[in-house]
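User: quick one
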Amino acid sequence: MLLMAQRVTATLVLIQNIKKMGTQMTDSHRRFLQVLMSHGILEGSAVRALHRHCCEEHKVHYSHDKLDDFVSVINVQLQSLFMQIRKGVSEDDGRQYYALVNLAETEITKMASDYAENELELFRKTMDLIIQSDNGFASSTSILNLSDQLQSKKMKKKEAEQVLQNFVQDKWLSEKDGEYTLSTRCIMEMENYICNTYQDMVNKCNLCGTLTIQGQVCDTCGIQIHLPCVARYFKGHTEPHCPNCNDFWSHEIPALHQADSPHLPSTAPKEAAPAAREKRRAVPSTSGRRPSRS
Ligand SMILES: [Zn+2]
Ligand SMILES: [Zn+2]
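Assistant: Done. Structure below.
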């Protein structure tokens, strides 16, 4: 009995020491978290610039290839709050993003404090439309038509238009030429919810393994691939073949948007002097709160 108690104590001490050694939060980590929190989501190059800025500002050793370590120090602290900084990839252009994700609330309840009941219903119905569509988009007309079918409380079209704009502003939806899709933030935060709710309707990308809303589907075997993953995988191929069944890939191969976005490990470029890129992007300011709405 005594021996077991001793062993447990020893293990606890060991865990505590590991925590002390590897996971010390400094002011640079706190600053970094604060900025990310105020934005909700930030693009990879902005995060790299922010990492550098926070280290320099607080006189902490900076190394550009230590961003993942830096983030994991914060993530250890966030565990008890059921939050996590997660890395994800945009379905539009394949660029990398970092988002602060709430793990405690796995449903649309994440949005509950910001929206009225009928606005949340509109969001759920919009999500249905997007996921049931062939291309991962829903037109504004089809969304606005839902506004007088809401069970909680009907909405005027004008009102619904404004709510839709708020969804975009708050980064839950993104808009392209009057068509709406789920934003990168939404997919990162709600991946589990979406997979559980729409089990048979959604697929994971055959190449990167994450949820696919916009993608190309193999005519033969039915696997789905993100557009940026398609672009990267088939780059330079004159006769593209499905990576799963090897049949001819009949879709048009989209152009590769960004050369600097590591997504698939096999083709990830080495981080090449990011200075020139980062100069153009200002470090996000800590006062950059999301715009308030009346
Ligand atoms: Zn993919
Ligand atoms: Zn196939």
